[in-house]
Amino acid sequence: MNAVLRSHLSSSQSALWRSLDALQGRPWPYCITAFHRISDRFADELSYPVRAFAELCRYWRDHYEILNLDRLLARLAHGDAAHHPTLVITFDDGYADNAEVAAPILDALGLSATFFVTTGVMGSEHRFFWDQALAATPPLMNWNQVRELHAAGFGIGSHTVSHARLSVTRGAALEHELQASRSRLESELGAPVLDFAYPFGQAADCDGTARAAVARAGYRCCLSCHGGLVAAGDSPYTLQRISVSPKYHATPHDWARRYLRARHSAKRAA
Question: Residue 258: what are its φ and ψ, rounded to 5°?
Fold first, then answer.
């Protein structure tokens, strides 16, 4: 096991250590992470605290290889496995704190990331239904902020027009959510947009009909958000992500423990 990762695990986990030591020298799966808000203003599972985010990013910078989606997809296309912990950072929905808080931290650390935005609500005071219980409406990015992220070298991807659940969106409505969001992004950025992340992103939301529509709309990949790692031979249209939550990943120690368990589970499943 990677000695640095081991240092973040307690001595009570010797059984996990032994099982992971058996994997020493074997290829590592890739890991794609997903954040939503980086904020101290709210105390829900979608709001990762600012200082904790900076600490986790520093830990990743020091102990992981950080890839952007371009490099990950190139490696997958060639069937290249990782031989050390390797990670991609993404964000969903398009909250303003992604641009105002997360991006400066990532930039200062030299880390790449992709931001998947819900095009129909950028620059508005829209309140997603899962935010109704919050004391205030979390602000969303405006188009200037989206363009500034792109100009700074961050990836920008589609998260549909309205954050539609694709497993229950069919026909012309499904095509519109995918094609209109991509068209708006390309118009705003003046550049191709090829990456897509499923709203909600649970296994049932990423069915074959939705995947086929994503491919027809011209995207090169689609990302879920129901946990799991990515193997070298995985299709770019079935990429799994781990949603990073302050409930389960509050510190680098917590992250390392759950990441190694995920790696062990992935190897057993293979």
Answer: -75, -35
The answer to whether residues 29 and 266 touch, using CB atoms and an 8 Å cutoff, is yes
Tokens encoding 189: 């950025």
Provide the b/e sequence for 87-103 (b: ≥16 CB within 10 Å): bbbbbbbbbbbbbebbb
Compute the distance between CA of residue 47 and CA of residue 44 in angstroms, rounded to an integer.
6
The pLDDT tens digits for 179-214 are: 999 999 999 999 999 999 999 999 888 899 999 999
pTM (2 decimals)? 0.91
Domain ranges for the chain, please list them.
Answer: 3-269
Structure tokens given for 112: 């790449």
Q: Which of 14, 25, 32, 78 is nearest to 223 (CA)?
A: 32
User: What CATH number has the domain spanning 3-269?
Assistant: 3.20.20.370
The strand pairing partners of 99, in sequence order, are none
Tell which residue, 249, 195, 250, 246, has the closest CA to residue 42: 246
List C-alpha distances in Å: 86 to 97, 150, 177, 254: 25, 23, 32, 17
